[in-house]
Amino acid sequence: MGAELAGFVGIERVDGDVGTSVTGDGARVHTGHGPQYNVSGETIIFTESDGRVRRQRTFSRAMADEQLTARFVEPPRFARAEEKLEEFRTVFLDGPLGSGRHTAAQMLLQRVGRDDSQFRMLSVEGDEDAEMSLRPDSVQPGERLLLDLSGEARAERFLDVQQKLLPFRAAVVENNGALVVIPPSELVHLLSPEWTRLKVGIGRPSGEAVLLKHLHADGIEAAPDDLDIDVLRPHLDRAPMRDLGHLCQRIAEARDAEPQHGFGDWVARACEALADRASEVARRAKEWSAPQRAWALAAAMLKDSHADSVQSAAISLLHRLKYPKEETHVLERDGLDESLRVIDVVPNADRQVTFTKLGYDNAVRDHFWTNYPELRVPLRDWIGSCVLDAGITDADRDRLVARFAEQARRTGRVTDLCTLAERWTRREGARHSVARALQWAASALAYGLREDPTTGMSAATVRRRIYTWASQPNLSVDLAHVLISVCADVMAETHPDHAVVRLRLLAAHNEPNVAEAAKDAVVGLAEDNRFYRRLLWWMRTWLIHHSKRSDVELFLATSAPRRLVDTTSRSTALITNSAVREQLVIGWRAVLNSHVDGWKKEVGKWLSASRTSSYGPSLLGVLVDAAGGELAKLAMLHVTARDWAAAARDVEERAGRQQVSRKLASEIDAAQGLRLAYS
Asked: What share of the chain is helix, strand, coil (3-state, %, to 5)?
């Protein structure tokens, strides 16, 4: 499906040679060797071999935690929240807007949890699998759970969630987990007494300390005295934490653009870039002709791209909007540089364009998407066609996807990202690599899945669309592969339940290659015991209530005996856990009922593991208990074990296998005896 794709999901800036990367709200682009997308938490590389998609994670959750720690400053009363979470395993984190509650919540969970405990964001937005999110029996031992309700505006919904949280929180305490809830500031007065006692209100951290930490994390040395700059004071005193992060990004951009200048100059340019330019851009836009406006928007979307690419995009936009073609001869028109100059854009020595004022491109993009709502669909289609246009580079396309995603999320049109993702997976008329088009589709969906309180429920909307797509067994193969990648490499990081539900649907796809790829993705995720425990919980639900043949195949693919008896990463083997054992029994019972292809081979693997592991009796016990005392199923196990023993390659191996077969026969006899004793 492609040569390579990297998706960096979570960090605002990336330093060093990271290939092509799109980062932050400003969609800043770095260029180097090989394509890399920076969307919002980890790097994902897609490689293709023999037509199968494989993914390699190069940015782990631990690395994301390190980035968070490097920039975090404790807000007032953070220590109190930490104490409450340690004591009661639950805290409601209140605080004024802009105080960094979401980041503080993540840091609380990072500090209270073990290194091997899973982090999971809870969901109550009402999509197909949200009901399962607050089920008490879904809580795993030691889980770190975050429920961000800061965007909830419905009082009835907030009160309903509080009721559901009562039994859920009891399960968190019982499993020694940790739960942080961020209530909506406007509805915090509706908290019940049960939750009010667990509420801690944090304050706004020191702006100076936050900015210094961000600067140091980005390799910019500055001392507290260096921040004593008049234009900086309003930002330090009042700006939300998110905006201070953006300020640091702009300072870094100013440093990169003018390294010969000093820190004070970089700060001045950064503050100028963050100023509200809406009225300034509106005034300039009135002076521009329609073609000049198209050029300005094209330049804003393609900042840092080659001037030729801007020209190509501007002409494409005018054509898309059915603007009359210019009748004058090309030699009578202004040249390319003059066309750019009149809209305050200048190319550098390498012909890469930028506006004369730092951050002006952001304001231009905001202006057109805010003030021309009737153009949002044509603009979406323009971006869609530009990405498929042979006249621009892959780096240009990366920039377009990132910057369009910013506007789609900001204006509440996140479904436009889904529309384009689906469109880019079609092959008609494509004059570029199909693999690259699929990568841009995956990137668009990854941007849409970013959790951001300022854009409401946009991520939930994208998750619902992905669910709808995944539910279609005849979904186009290319789109299905994109969904598999996005679910496994982006969604699973914060919403593992949502991811596995969708991958399970894709594992039932009519195309064997897609089904196998989805299964492989789940197997890869299940290598993490934390994810595997959640998967077994889901498997139990599916296999009992609405089992499909693909569910049984998924169970067999993920339940290799080696991981169940492994003690290298844990003090006791998973097979010894009573809940895990019960779930394994249910899974094997479904296997024995369905006779899926390859089930005898999987039984053989369990028998082989029981021969070499001290937990062998536990493995055999699961197989026998799965038969439920039914003579036909017990006979199936007996015959399978006999044939497995007979297939040994030499005398010594045959003797060992026969010993295991006899042990299984003994377990079967005991099961029959128990059945008879109670009949």
From this structure: 60, 10, 30
